[in-house]
Amino acid sequence: MTPTALSVDSEIQLITAGAPGATGSTCTPELAEGPWQFDLKPPSYGPGASMADPIPADAPRQGELPEEYKTASKAELDARIRAAKATLGDRVVVLGHFYQRDEVVQYADFVGDSFQLANAALTVPEAEAIVFCGVHFMAETADILARPQQAVILPNLAAGCSMADMADIDSVEEAWAELSAIYGTEPDASGRVPVIPVTYMNSSAALKGFCGQNGGIVCTSSNAATVLEWAFERGQRVLFFPDQHLGRNTAKAMGVPLERMPMWNPRKALGGNSEESLLDAQVILWHGFCSVHKRFTVAQIEKARASHPGVQVIVHPECPMPVVDAADAAGSTDFIVKAIAAAPAGSTFAIGTEINLVQRLANEYPQHTIFCLDDVICPCSTMYRIHPGYLAWVLESLVGVDGGPSVVQNRIVVDEAVAAPARVALERMLSARP
Ligand code: SF4
């Protein structure tokens, strides 16, 4: 089936073509507006999958983008971005997350998932500036791993992550204190401590630092099982945050019974659990989720199978457990990309992850039929906040306007008191690799 032509935004297209069977509808008409409209409104994640999630009061705000970047045509922005990049040369590297729109990804020197991109930044030590077209926690991770003299820039400070914001350092420290009161701090006869904190890469630097300071570790969606094995060798149980679904799906596949995975709701005493259930717990799951991946359902999988016999359904492990269980395979964005690349021509895939990646894969692999499980276009709200206008602004500021000095806009700096233990947790993850 030929992809249906769709255009969400006539000037800067958010989605360049629709998936087969797509209705063409979007989850909100606000997606057609320039993201700067939302910088000036009361704080929100913006339009898209996270628009109904409560945003923390202290979430970073983006100042007003200069008018010329809001009104420039697509062609003008393209010329200005390319000219600024050419002038800056090796002084700057642009990173683009898989979930960014193509109109941004086209300028990226590296494209990948959050950890691939943080590592990519390490390969360009000569770059003075790393422009991270992604979300806030990714820029923080890049700053933690980058050289001190390198400036990590997030083109729009409002590009956060609603899932990462669901676990804040104060709530996690409170949970840790409550759990310590129940478990104590003494190791068992095998030398395993009562509980190991494990944070998903999609978390603030403060939480990575917390893990580093408390014998814990970071995981990605690619290595979550390896990291949990590492943790179970050293601890009797795991406190996993912020994504309940990645934690549950991974631990379940490793044989942990569901009844030994209580959920921790930070708004309730003992996370909403009894002391008894916490004593029996093997994995305590933080009450966090990704609103992009929460949209996928078993009914969508059934519909895809009915309309495309032989379809392979691959979903991201941030999807709810019934969806992962019903799919043919589940894995990280890198897993999805590689599975499609390795498939014989003529394969059909229904994919459960962010629409910009799915649509890019559909365009890159015309020999396959590739479509998003969700036929309503609802991208990640915060990835959406990065637009070529912001990229042009940060790059031209680095060049210096009208012969003026180079200006670093939107630098993300992680205090060394947080970065040092966060680095420990990240290094533990690297050393835990099989
Ligand atoms: S897709 Fe989900 S986890 Fe990823 S940045 Fe968006 S809200 Fe966060």
Automatic annotation (TrEMBL):
Q: How is the cofactor bound?
A: Binds 1 [4Fe-4S] cluster per subunit.
Residues given in the record as [4Fe-4S] cluster binding sites: C161, C290, C380
The pathway this protein participates in, as annotated, is: Cofactor biosynthesis; NAD(+) biosynthesis; quinolinate from iminoaspartate: step 1/1
A GO cellular component entry from the record: cytosol
- Can the keyword 4Fe-4S be found in this entry's annotation? yes
Q: Where does iminosuccinate bind?
A: H97, S114, Y200, M201, N202, S221, H316, P317, E318, T333
UniProt xrefs under InterPro entries:
NadA, NadA_sf, Quinolinate_synth_A_type3
Q: Which family does it belong to?
A: Belongs to the quinolinate synthase family. Type 3 subfamily.
Function according to Swiss-Prot or TrEMBL: Catalyzes the condensation of iminoaspartate with dihydroxyacetone phosphate to form quinolinate.
Where do the segments described as Disordered lie? 17-37
Q: Which organism is it from?
A: Herbiconiux oxytropis
Q: Please identify the protein, giving its name as recorded.
A: Quinolinate synthase
| Organism superkingdom | Bacteria
* HAMAP family per UniProt: NadA_type3
What is its subcellular localisation?
Cytoplasm
Q: What is its EC number?
A: 2.5.1.72
Task: State the UniProt keywords alphabetically.
Answer: 4Fe-4S, Cytoplasm, Iron, Iron-sulfur, Metal-binding, Pyridine nucleotide biosynthesis, Transferase
Q: Name one GO biological process term.
A: 'de novo' NAD+ biosynthetic process from L-aspartate
Q: Which gene encodes it?
A: nadA
Which top EC class is named for this enzyme in its record? transferase
Keyword Transferase assigned to the entry: answer is yes
Q: Which cofactor does it need?
A: [4Fe-4S] cluster
| Taxonomic path | Bacteria, Bacillati, Actinomycetota, Actinomycetes, Micrococcales
Catalysed transformations (reactions): iminosuccinate + dihydroxyacetone phosphate = quinolinate + phosphate + 2 H2O + H(+)
UniProt GO molecular function? 4 iron, 4 sulfur cluster binding; metal ion binding; quinolinate synthetase A activity
Q: What broad class describes the main subcellular location of this protein?
A: cytoplasm
